Amino acid sequence: FDNGVMDPSFDIDGRKEVNLPEFTFMGGISALSDGSIVVATSIGQSQGGSEFNVRKFKSNGSLDPTFGFNGETDINLNESCLATGLAIQSDGKILVGGMAGLGDGEDYSIARLHANGLLDNSFGNNGIAKNLDSSGDHCANTLALQADGKLLIGGFTPYGLATMARYITASANGANENTVFVSELSVSPNPAVGATTMARFTLAENATVHLEIYDMAGHLMSITSRQLQKGPQNEPISVADLPAGVYMLHVRSMEYFSTKAFVKAE
């Protein structure tokens, strides 16, 4: 085999181009052990975009529909932002780093996703650690994981100084993510009719459980938290305010979660 040539088994001719509606900047890329690829981008930079975008591709270059919502996840930082790095923790969670507040006190911003592309609400503030500093700009352009799991992010200031910061992650402080878990998740009836449907699942331990509903664009539509006892569960979820369409039910207990698609009928 020749070295230094594009791999024809990837997409069509070794290259993959994704058509997005606005200017896109790719800020990070990482390969997983199964050959799949995760990339971090920033969408709409020429218009002051406010989202990190993460996509997962199969080893052949096609989008992985099991990741996020049809292969991608948008992370809204509510500030003009730029993703400049991506790293994969040893537990499979995905860290996306960059900066937010462009032109108005830039500083480091990091988001963490579960391996399936859903935002990890146990990290930072609902999945995002955003440290805006109006007194000085800190522009991020690289990140890396230490051997102990802590995250380093670095860059520069407009005044010619190199700058870096270090963040603690769950894999660095020894959190046991499988102590409490949800299994056998189903939604019934599905399609959901009327104002309520039921989430059925089994809980291994007593725990606070969060029932989250997302639309297919990844927007959180509702969240309900309940303290439940271990064993089989039959929990009502309100769908009265949802328009007809396809949704994802995300049942989360501590660091473990399970998801199920369901349809809201007309």
Structural description of this entry:
It is built from no helices and 18 strands. The chain has strands at residues 24-31, 37-43, 51-57, 72-76, 81-88, 94-100, 107-113, 128-130, 139-145, 151-156, 162-167, 182-188, 196-203, 207-215, 220-228, 231-238, 245-253, 256-264. The chain has a four-stranded antiparallel β-sheet with strand order 1-2-3-4, with no helix packed on it. A four-stranded antiparallel β-sheet has the order 5-6-7-8, with no helix packed on it. Strands 15-14-17-18 form a four-stranded antiparallel β-sheet, with no helix packed on it. Residues 172-180 have low confidence and may be disordered.
Give a short synopsis of this structure.
By secondary structure, this protein is mostly beta strands. It has strands at 24-31, 37-43, 51-57, 72-76, 81-88, 94-100, 107-113, 128-130, 139-145, 151-156, 162-167, 182-188, 196-203, 207-215, 220-228, 231-238, 245-253, 256-264.
